Amino acid sequence: MLWFIGRRLLQMIPVFFGATFLIYFMVFALPGDPILALFGEKTPSPAVVEQLRAQYHLDQPFIVQYLLYLKSLVTFDLGNSFSGRPIADVMAKAFPVTLRLATLAVLFEAVAGITVGLISGLRKGKFFDSSALVVSLLLISIPTFVIGFVLQYVFAVQLGWTKATVGPQAGWSELVLPAIVLASVSFAYIIRLTRTSISENMGADYVRTASSKGLTRGRVVRVHVLRNSLIPVVTFIGADFGALMVGAIVTEGIFNIPGVGGTVFQAIKQGQGPTVVSFVAVFVIIFMVANLLVDLLYAVLDPRIRYAN
Amino acid sequence: MPTDTVSPPGRGGRSPDHYVAPIEDTPLQAVDSVKVDAKVSSLWADAWRAMRARPLFWFSSVMILFIAFVGIFPQLFTNELPNDNCLLANSNGGPTAGHPMGFTKQGCDVFARVIYGAQASLTVGVVATVVVVLIGVVLGAVAGFYGGFSDGLISRATDIFFAIPFVLGAIVLLSVFQGPSNAIIVALILSLFGWPQTARITRGAVLEARGADYVTASIALGVTRFKVLLKHVLPNAIAPVIVVATVSLGIFIVAEATLSYLGVGLPPSVMSWGNDIAQAQVSIRTAPMTLFYPAAALSLTVLSFLMLGDVVRDALDPKERAR
Amino acid sequence: MKISRIGLSAAALLSASALVLTGCASGDGGAPAPGTSDTPGASTSTGIVTANSNEPQNPLYPANTNEVGGGKILDMVFAGLYYYDADGKAIPEVAKSVESDDATNYTVKLNDGWTFTNGEKVTASSFVDAWQYGALLSNAQLSSYFFETIDGFSYDKDSKLALNVVDDLTFTVKLSAPEADWPLRLGYSAFMPLPTEALVDGKATTAFGENPIGNGPYMLASADAWQHNVQIDLVPNPDYKGTRTVKNGGVTLKFYDNQDSAYADLQSDNLDVLDAIPASAFETFEQTLGDRAINQPSAVFQSFTIPEKLEHFGGEEGKLRRAALSMAINRPEITDVIFFKTRTPASDYTSPVIAGWSDSLAGSDVLKFNADEAKAKWAEAEKISPYTGTFTIGYNSDGGHQPWVDAVANSLKNTLGIKAEGQPYATFAELRTDVTDRKIKGAFRTGWQADYPSMFNFLGPLYATNAGSNDGDYSSPEFDALLKEGASAKSVDDATGFFQKAQEVLLQDLPAIPLWYSNVTGGFSTQVQNVKFGWNSVPLYYEITKD
To answer: Containing domain of residue A140, as a range?
Structure first.
């Protein structure tokens, strides 16, 4: 097991550099000079532009910029964003908020999604199943920005059950509605995955064996089916956690949440390579750790999988 | 009935040694030869038989064919040109004769835009899904089945692309390519960041199927590994891929809408449901119907693909059919 | 002299659109910042007013701020030589007088008794040192061009401005050319004074940018009053000596990047003052908010520029086509239907809040919708050289411009029967780069928000030959001459006549097609009173009362 974790940690190194290089390159390839945009519609004098370009290393070729960035990464001095704030400070403010949001969203989608999916899978073709199918379908087919806007309007503006936007502290309770909006598509995904998996497993031989042993249906489902069916669901949730942190771009915008999605989006729009890549670097780490945990969970859920040497 | 549980008699190491009498002399010959023909294509033939018995299959197939037909020949369905004769005097107007769905904020005919929007949205969804499934299944299968070095290489590449969040990667790349962008480019960009999901799922499913007894049996019987992968492992691993693919198709179409909302999707000159939803969103309080129609078209399309996916999966999954 | 604010807020913040981004926070009406509600003599109410804003794009140094988010704070925290009242009139604040005999050599006298909140006296050096710092090339301050008309300013090398400290309360300024309305610009934040601790070894300190020390009606509530991306808490400055008397217990500016969420907060009384209504509520906000809605003209001019070098748009043919395009656009219809009267159709090249604005300039008929005349002029141009291809209007797709660009394109299509469409750029940077490098292959949107209330500010930087923001490369000796006469006229009234004549030249040549003036749209909650918006679209925060 330790050997397995060690190997996985080593594998993370090329993934980390590959992903950050890729994103840095893409941001570099963005057309347009970010410095010119700082001046609005006024065309600045070339000398001032040169000065600023040099300040942000934008006058260097791509590979030099990337290496300079790597250097700053290694020395833990990420430099400043265009607004003059240290990038590390920008990240320290944004990440905890989004982390809370994503955690709530994952909790919601996992609990609600698995519950609904389980019932659907056990009662395939029945009324509940059909209703769940329709709901999951609607959630997938209506864009998040429409869902968010409608829920905000109904629950905050019309009914006044919750605040329309999230306060500066972005506390847990304020994030419930945004988290539901954020999780809506994944929720639909999980319903379907669980349902498929459950109904598949219900037809498996071991279920027949367990039933014929005289186990009650409830026990068969709890002990055998659920455990086996959760493998694809857990994989999905693990991967989804990272996706939710960035996927929050739209949700964070609607509810004015001071998280990472908006910060990254703005940085992309402004062509701020170092800021974008710094955030992506953290995403990559979150992603890799989440996946490692998923793989370890595999072993717990499926006794056939063992990570020995 | 499942092909996989027993090595079919028509294949593999049949040699005269196995028979007491020459096969021509036994009464089994007729039976045997019939089975040979039936077995070779049995999985897909069985699937077909199972599918065509389902009304849902016919409903969703007809819907998809119809939507595809609309996408290919929009001019057969409306005489209006969706981008011409947009008069502000008609802005957000209700239905009138010849304009059954009313008008957009710009005063364009909603019905014509919904009809013409099918093409771009379908193209984005279908092309992206096909590319994602092709790349994902091939790489995932190779990695999962052969393991070793190829697995390491493919898995790292998958991780790299997977680690870059889908929306974020798409936003950056679409910003790079916005100038000449069209539905195909948007689809390719979406698939560039979408395939790792399929690859991982395929790899996982293949990994699981590879360990099954029938695979071990086939290999023991001398079937080449590639054939085992193609004939036994993949068909058994494909079900989760199809589920994800059909859902992805919807996700891609919706993702295009979201990216349009963020200002980096298809340019407004390309008509798509996504663009129309994004534009109608501003009028959601005052003219919700301009948002409703393209959203309904989008939902209906996604619905059709999801239902088809369900039917196909049920049909392809022998365990499911056995019940 | 610059444009930047519209552009910037569109580019960097996307605030005008339904776009996204984070921002932050809303939160509790008046919880933060205990405030100094017992400020002697100043307050007539004690409540803390919450208002929307944007996270400042830069540290808060006066000369490095060229966008609204930072500008609002600087205007509250600093007092310059002048400030602008609700009508855009420049009112002396720290200045006792700014005088000149020749419109070139100015003598500035300061009022005595002003101090910064750290106790330091505001002297002539406070201004001179701040200006020298802001103008110096190697400091690369975003608003350095504000100083470009002062003698000694250089874009090529570090050099000193011709500023001279006479005594503690007097300094002189020498301009490089006569300029009658020069004092008008002195209320802009770039001209604010700085205490000595702001500059260490000639460089602005990071600490100061985070927590500026000023002499204005407000000051930061504490050292960490600026919570990035969330809000900034301002409280009345008890030592303030000017006439912008604070009538509330403080102001908390909450940063939003999405106006829809700010509007939602306003509707639920979670925000007191909003100065930008989202597009999705244009149609309904006046009805929803009743007499708490604000919709009045502001100093923002919108147009699209057709480069002189664009094929078919030069010479006599170009004049005809430009006039045809201008007359093919039904401005009132677009401002009604797309903007629900939150824009006012343009009748000149300035803005209704600027003294000298006119709706009856000779040749302004070209801005009125006239389909027949438009077709006739286009047909005439076709005889010179037939037009093929598509007329495009470039815009940044992240600024909420698509609806009106599409509407203008449709208007052109329907009236002239030509192909016309919007050409979106994913980012503002990309658009500006294509414009600056002269690589853009069609027309492009242009907008200008005045930094100080003067006609010259709407004309000189945009259309004078080789001017900094003359992105269409327009050049007219006649226009240049009139502009120069206006600039050096001895009085502002004399100048107005020249500037109006100069605009008549523009109306013939149409280097940019005027579209409309943006209104300032806003609203306020039931908990505040006396909400007024200034000429520059910013609420007069100090006037607001809240109990």
So the answer is: 94-264
